[in-house]
Amino acid sequence: ERDGDGRPRLAYIDQRRLPGELAFERTGDWRVVVDAVKSLAVRGAPALGIAGAAAVALWAGNVGAARATSRGCAGEGPCFLEELGPVADEVAAARPTAVNLAWGVRRAVARARRAVASGAPSALVADELFDEVKHMEAEDEAVNRAIGAHGAELLAPGSRILTHCNAGSLGTAFYGTALGIVYAAAAQGKVERVYADETRPVGQGARLTAWELSRANVPCTLICDDMAASLMAAGRVDAVLVGADRIAANGDAANKIGTYGVAVLARHHGIPFYMAAPTSTIDPTLPDGSGIPIEERDPAEVLPQPLPGVEVWNPAFDVTPAALITRIVTERGVFEPGKLVY
Amino acid sequence: ERDGDGRPRLAYIDQRRLPGELAFERTGDWRVVVDAVKSLAVRGAPALGIAGAAAVALWAGNVGAARATSRGCAGEGPCFLEELGPVADEVAAARPTAVNLAWGVRRAVARARRAVASGAPSALVADELFDEVKHMEAEDEAVNRAIGAHGAELLAPGSRILTHCNAGSLGTAFYGTALGIVYAAAAQGKVERVYADETRPVGQGARLTAWELSRANVPCTLICDDMAASLMAAGRVDAVLVGADRIAANGDAANKIGTYGVAVLARHHGIPFYMAAPTSTIDPTLPDGSGIPIEERDPAEVLPQPLPGVEVWNPAFDVTPAALITRIVTERGVFEPGKLVY
After folding, report:
1. Which among A257, A310, A314, A319 is the top mutation candidate for probing chain B, defined by the most B β-carbons within 10 Å of its own β-carbon?
2. Cross-chain residue pair A233–B19, CB shorter than 8 Å
3. How many C-beta atoms lie closer than 10 Å to residue B291's C-beta?
4. Which is the catalytic residue, given A127, A140, A197, A245?
5. With pLDDT > 70 as the criterion, what percentage of chain B qualifies?
6. pLDDT score, position B14
7. Residues of B in contact with A261 (CB under 8 A)
8. Residue B72: pLDDT above 70?
9. Confidence tier at A73 by pLDDT (50, 70, 90)
10. pLDDT recorded at residue B316
C-alpha cells in the first residue's frame, strides 16, 4: 500500500504477537522488513517471497530512486542498479533456508533491470516494483487457491488431518498452502478435524495454526509435537499435510523442524504424507536435499534462561527425503515427489 | 525422616520449581503428599512408589495410630486396618499410569497387615511403616545402581545417548534408571554426550534432566522433541535410553508421552532403543500394553491461555510396543522385552 504522501509501505501482521494480539504493522523502511523477517514477525515461505520483493520495492521507492536521481553518476539507471545490488543481497540473506525469499528478491531485481533497460527513470522503476509486489500478492493467493483445489481431491470425506507448523494465511499472502488444502476441503465438507502440532520452539502451530483454524471455524485440536505418534497409533489421523520451504529437484524437501519426524511416523503408521507449496519453492539448482542450508537459530528460543553446562541445538528446519513424501501439491497439480513439474 | 517431636515426615524436592530453585519441602501430612504427586511436584515411577508408601506411613504415624487407639472399637488393629483401606485407595489413585505408585502403597499395606497380624499395637505398626519407607529408599538406590551396572555394558565408548523425560535421581530415590545407566557408563568414560528431549508439555527434559546432568558434569545438549529425528538422521545418536512407568507381561511399556515416537524414529534409523526400570515397574496382571490406563491431564499444561474454538489433547503417557524395544534393563539384568524375569 501507499501512505498519505504516496510513498510505498508494507502492511504486515506481527506474527510474534499472535494469538494474544492481532497487530498490523506498517513500515516504509526496507531494513524494518529485513528485521521482521529475521525475528519471525513475518514468516512462512510464500510470505517471505513477497516480503523479500517488498523490501526491495520499499528501498527503491523511499531511498534508491531519490538517491540515484541526486547522485552525479553517468547514468541514473546504472547508478540505481549498482546501489540495488547490495540491498538485494542483504534482503535475500536475511534467512537462509526458504528459497522463496531469494526468489522474491530476484524477481524484483529482474523487474528493475528490465525497467532500467527500457530507459525508465528510477522513480518509475520504483513504481514498477510497487506494482510487482501487489501482483505477487494477488498471484500468491491465486496459487494457494489452486493448491487447495488440487489437494482437496486427495482427501476423503471425514478426513482427520495432522499438520505441523503454519502453512496457512499467515505464512502466505492469503489462504495458505497446506491450510489452503484444508480450507478447500472443509468447504467441500471433507474435514472432520485438524490436529495441529504446537511446533516447538517457536510455536507456530500453537500460536498461529490453531488461531487461524479457529477463526475459520475448522474444528481444531492442539497437541504437543511428541503426541503425534500416539495420535497416529490410535488411528486418529487420515493424512498429514504440511508446507515446504525449499524443494530440491529430486523431491527432497526442507520444512519446519519436526516435519521429517512426522514423515517417518506417518510412514510407520501407513498414513499418507502430503506437502503443499508453490512452484517458487522448488530449487532446481539443488539435485537433492543434502545441499539445502539449514538455519540454526538462537538457543534462547529453546531455553530462555541459560543453564550452566547445558548446550542447546536449535535447527529451524529439517529435510524430508522424497521417499517419505506421498505427494507434493503445487498450483500445477499433484505430483510424485520425483516427478515434479516446474 | 522425623521431625523434632519424633513424628514422621517426608522430605522431597518440589520438582516444579527446578531448575530455577532447588526447594526441599517437608510434610507430615499424607494429603500433601497426594497433592504433590498429582501436581508433579514429585514424579518419576520409582519416586512415586516411595511417595505412595510414604503417604501411607505418614497417615499411620500422624493420624491412624492415634485414631485407632482412641476409638472404642473391638480391636485396635482391625480398626487401624479398616481406616487404612480408603486412605491407601486414595493414595494409589492419585495418578493412574505408573504402576509403582500402587505397588508402593500395596507394599506398605502388606507390611501393616503383617504387623497387625503379629499383634503389634498401632503405634508400632506406624513405626514399622516408617522403617519400610526408609528401606524402600535404600533399596531403590541399590536397584538403580544395579540397573546402571547392567545397562552400562550395552554402551560402547564414545556413546552419544538420546533420552526423553527424566529417569534420573529426581525421578527415583537417587541415581536414576535410564540416567543411572548414563552415570555408570560415564564413570567408565563411555559417554560422549547426552541429548535431552525437552519433553513437552511439562518439560521434564529441559527442567530436570538437563539440570541433573549438568550438575553431574555429563556433557548435555538440550533439544526440542521435534528435533530428535534430525539428530538421528545426522548420525549423532548411538543409543536411546528411557525409563518406564508400567511394563506389561509381554514387554509393551508405558512411559512419558513422546517415548513411543522416539522408539519409532530409533527403529527407522537403526538405533538401539533401551528401557530401564526396576522390576516393580512390571505389571504381570496385564498381558499387553493395551490395558495400561493412560492419564490425560489439564489442557492448561499445553495451552496456558485457552483459545476459543481450540481443543487440546494432553495424554501424559504413551505405550511403546515390545517389538520396538531393543532391550529392557532391570536390576536383574538385561532382557529381551518378551523374556522379562520378574
Report:
1. A310
2. no
3. 13
4. A245
5. 99
6. 96
7. 226, 228-230, 261, 265
8. no
9. low
10. 98
Smallest CA-to-CA distance from B201 within A205, A203, A224, A231 is with: A224
Kindly provide the ipTM of the predicted complex, given to two decimals.
0.95
User: pLDDT (tens digit, 9 = 90+) per residue, A249-287?
Assistant: 999 999 999 999 999 999 999 999 999 999 999 999 999
Confidence of residue B73 (pLDDT cuts 50, 70, 90): low
Asked which of A89, A110, A144 is the last residue of a domain, the reply is: A144
Residues of B with a catalytic annotation lie at 245
Q: CA dihedral in degrees (A277, A279, A284, A286; nearest 10)?
A: -20
Buried b (16+ CB within 10 A) or exposed e, B117-145: eeebbbbebbbbbbebbeebbebbbebbb
Domain that holds residue B58: 10-144
Strand order in the sheet with A239-242: A333-335, A327-330, A273-276, A239-242, A159-163, A191-197, A220-223, B310-312
Q: Across the interface, do B200 and A200 touch by the CB < 8 Å criterion? A: yes
Residues B129 and B154 in one domain: no
> How many structural domains does chain B have?
2
Mark yes or no for CB contact A200/B226 under 8 Å.
yes
Kindly indicate the confidence band of residue A66, based on its pLDDT and cuts at 50, 70 and 90.
confident
Question: Mutating which of B192, B193, B310, B314 best tests the A interface, going by the most A Cβ atoms within 10 A?
Answer: B310
Among B77, B112, B144, give the residue marking a domain's end.
Answer: B144
> CATH number, domain at B174?
3.40.50.10470
CATH of the domain at B76: 1.20.120.420
